[in-house]
Specification:
two-stranded antiparallel ribbon, 14 helices, LivM-like, transmembrane helix, single chain
Length: about 350
């Protein structure tokens, strides 16, 4: 009888930490959803309180966040390097521009087509590229970014050449009562929310676990039955698809595309923004979008020659203070505050 009592007590003691961890996970998940809902409410409220130029800036933050979300899938979660992400951004922008300019398609109809074209090109380029790794893969993706600009300039009858294409922006429906800048902001916000939800669902699935396995240890992942080339190629294609979607929305917002807007500098800036925001983190793309949009803008106000210098110095400073990016720094600060509150 005493033996059964001891077994029961041991089981209870073993179950208590398990229940505690489960409750902690539920509380953490609930807190995250509350924070996301609050952030979304603030995002919906902001365009009614900000001047048009600020609304435009935050619209561009969302555009860059969608592009960085795709790059985060490839670099942060699959562990592959890419210096050509700006090329797929440009491809999405030009596919949208050509459809609007040549075929007069509705703006919303261009989004899935631009994303699909970028996905197909990412898949096609990913097949040979994923046989490489490290520095060799970086050089191949860099070549893609270098190749795009002269290619766009060469086909002037279609792309407009160096002069680019000027396009009409989506007009807000009369029933909304919104100004053009507010309407573009909400369109971009809707695309960003859908993109983040899709990425969240993807990473929580078996595919996400396979990508993390590839990132952490390719040899171990292959032993466990993960098809390396398959998931690497898909990660490349998904990354390109989100970049293409971001490029499409960029065309809506700017109303103009030119080859020089999608040079190698864009690819390098996007990668730097993701590293600063936080590789592999949920909030990294959004923080990176803020960094990419506002740091050059603020630096430009200081001095015409300052943006590049300040941008580089800030990257060095962030990497020194927060090696895991701004998202990692925010997480450490939050945990420190939580520990202090618990002690009190």
């Amino acid at each position: 009888m005493s033996g059964s009592v001891k077994v029961t007590e041991n089981a209870a003691r073993a179950g208590a930490p398990t229940r505690g961890r489960a409750l902690a996970r539920v509380a953490t998940l609930r807190w995250r959803w509350i924070m996301m809902a609050a952030l979304l409410m603030a995002a919906c409220y902001a365009p009614f309180q900000l001047p048009p130029f600020r609304v435009f800036q935050f619209t561009m933050v969302l555009v860059y966040a969608v592009a960085l979300l795709g790059l985060n899938l490839l670099v942060g979660h699959a562990g592959q390097i890419s210096l050509g992400h700006g090329a797929f951004f440009g491809i999405g922008a030009y596919v949208t521009a050509i459809m609007l300019d040549r075929w007069d398609m509705p703006h919303v109809a261009t989004l899935p087509i631009a994303a699909a074209v970028a996905f197909a090109l990412g898949l096609g380029l990913g097949l040979p590229a994923m046989r490489l790794r490290g520095l060799y893969l970086a050089l191949v993706t860099l070549a893609i970014a270098i190749f795009l600009v002269p290619l766009l300039k060469r086909f002037e009858p279609v792309t407009g050449g160096s002069m680019g294409l000027t396009l009409a922006k989506p007009a807000p429906p009369a029933w909304t009562g919104l100004a053009e800048d507010q309407w573009l902001y909400f369109l971009t916000l809707a695309v960003a929310v859908v993109a983040f939800l899709l990425a969240h669902g993807l990473l929580r699935s078996r595919v996400g676990r396979a990508l993390h396995a590839v990132r952490d240890n390719e040899a171990a992942a292959e032993v466990m039955g993960v098809r390396l080339s398959f998931y690497k190629t898909l990660a490349f294609a998904w990354s390109a698809m989100l970049a293409g979607a971001a490029g499409c929305v960029y065309t809506w917002v700017i109303g103009f595309v030119s080859p020089d807007s999608f040079s190698v500098n864009l690819s390098i800036t996007l990668l730097a923004g993701l590293v600063v925001g936080g590789l592999g983190s949920a909030s990294g793309p959004l923080l990176g979008g803020l960094f990419v949009m506002f740091v050059p803008s603020i630096s430009q106000d200081v001095n015409d020659a300052a943006p590049g210098v300040i941008f580089g110095l800030l990257i060095i400073a962030v990497m020194y203070v927060a090696p895991t990016g701004l998202a990692g720094l925010a997480g450490r600060v939050t945990r420190s505050i939580t520990k202090v509150l618990r002690k009190e």
